[in-house]
Design a protein that fits this description.
The complex is a heterodimer of chains A (194) and B (156). Chain A has helices at 24-34, 85-92, 109-125, 150-157, 175-193; strands spanning 2-4, 9-17, 44-47, 53-62, 70-77, 97-103, 135-140, 164-166. With 194 residues, chain A is of the alpha/beta class. In chain A, strand 6, helix 3 and strand 7 (135-140) form a beta-alpha-beta unit. In chain A, helix 2 (85-92) crosses helix 3. The two termini of chain A are 12 Å apart. The longest helix of chain B has 27 residues, at 102-128. The chains are: A alpha/beta (194), B alpha+beta (156).
């Protein structure tokens, strides 16, 4: 969290993390498409010619003043492809909370586990304890036929006890619930620290 | 301290006739902005600049630089961008007309970065302290506001 007293803003950085093609960018695209232009900025995507995230996507949401401060949420995605590990670490820097977007399909279970391990390693390398980082699990692609049970995904990625949402980001199901949950956790953690 | 930072940024903008001078922290949080580019969102500029500086620093580390703190320059057809790392924790961003000599921008931005260095060290100390949220009801008020903003959406 970053409070800029001069601009009277409170900034929160939330990172959408997960394996390749799990729907991280789709979450941001849905939020961008369905929020009023008065509260959101431009959706910026640094992507390859093949439309895959190369560095990150970025979207900011801004609410009206609360107790004299304007809350601003900076939402980022990381590139999911394995070889962009360096970029993922850079984007994670300064994160206040993470949404882990898991791909619910049976054949992606292992990729979810590897992405979670990668995230934990990157957080540790940045000096953050993954156990205290506010985290929300989103089990995405629930609209597809070949999906594993949510409880199994939770267990596999080691997210028992973490808020979890079954979603279909492409249809918008669970997208806002996930966003609200992570913001709630981040602000709660900040207040607890004080 | 905010006024002193603002003074340095304003002086730099005037000296280089820059379109925009910003100071952000290394993670892309905007600290201060002095811009006449109404169409450009300073928060977005800060975020992208942070990504660029971080990637360049990592690239430099990969080729053997031990503590890379260099600058990044983009020379455009109409507007150019100069990013300077300040004390390893902040980024000074200058957007200037392509006709402005790059040497002048380098020189003035370098001087501004030196002056900022002392100030931002103090600023960093301040940031390291717990930053108090205004009231204990802040979370409830924020969640209500968020619910209202997202709840008004069509087609949910």
């Amino acid at each position: 969290m970053f409070i800029n007293w001069k601009l009277r803003e409170i900034n929160l950085k939330i990172v959408y993390y997960g394996p390749a093609l799990s729907g991280k960018t789709t979450n941001l695209q849905y939020i961008h498409a369905k929020t009023s232009p008065s509260i959101r900025g431009e959706l910026v995507s640094l992507k390859t010619r093949g439309d895959r995230t190369l560095y990150f996507d970025f979207l900011q949401l801004e609410l009206g003043q609360i107790a004299g401060l304007k809350p601003r949420f900076n939402l980022y995605t990381v590139p999911g492809q394995v070889y962009y590990v360096g970029s993922r670490k850079l984007v994670l820097q300064g994160a206040d909370g993470v949404v882990f977007v898991a791909d619910s399909q049976w054949d992606r279970l292992r990729a979810n586990v590897e992405a979670m391990r990668d995230m934990e390693e990157n957080l540790r390398a940045l000096g953050c304890d993954p156990r205290v980082m506010p985290l929300v699990l989103q089990c995405n692609k629930r609209d597809l036929p070949n999906v594993a049970p949510v409880t199994l995904i939770q267990q596999q990625v080691g997210c028992n006890g973490v808020p979890c949402f079954a979603s279909s980001a492409i249809q918008g199901i669970g997208v806002f619930d996930t966003l609200k949950a992570i913001i709630n956790l981040v602000v709660a953690r900040t207040q607890k620290q004080l | 301290m905010a006024d002193e930072i603002a003074q340095i940024l304003v002086h730099l903008r005037r000296a280089t006739e820059a379109e925009c001078v910003l100071l952000a922290d290394i993670s892309g949080q905007l600290i201060d902005a002095h811009s006449r580019m109404r169409e450009v969102d300073p928060v977005l500029v800060a975020t992208l600049a942070a990504g660029d500086v971080a990637a360049m620093a990592e690239l430099a580390r990969q080729v053997g630089e031990e503590s890379p703190r260099g600058a990044v320059l983009h020379e455009g057809a109409h507007k150019s961008i100069y990013l300077v790392n300040v004390a390893g924790s902040f980024i000074l961003i200058v957007v200037f007309q392509a006709e402005t000599p790059v040497g002048l921008v380098r020189l003035m931005a370098g001087r501004a970065a030196e002056r900022l260095q002392a100030l931002v060290a103090r600023y960093e100390e301040q940031l390291a302290w717990p930053q108090t949220l205004p009231t204990t009801n802040f979370r409830t008020a924020l969640m209500d506001e968020l619910e209202k903003a997202l709840g008004e959406l069509p087609g949910r």
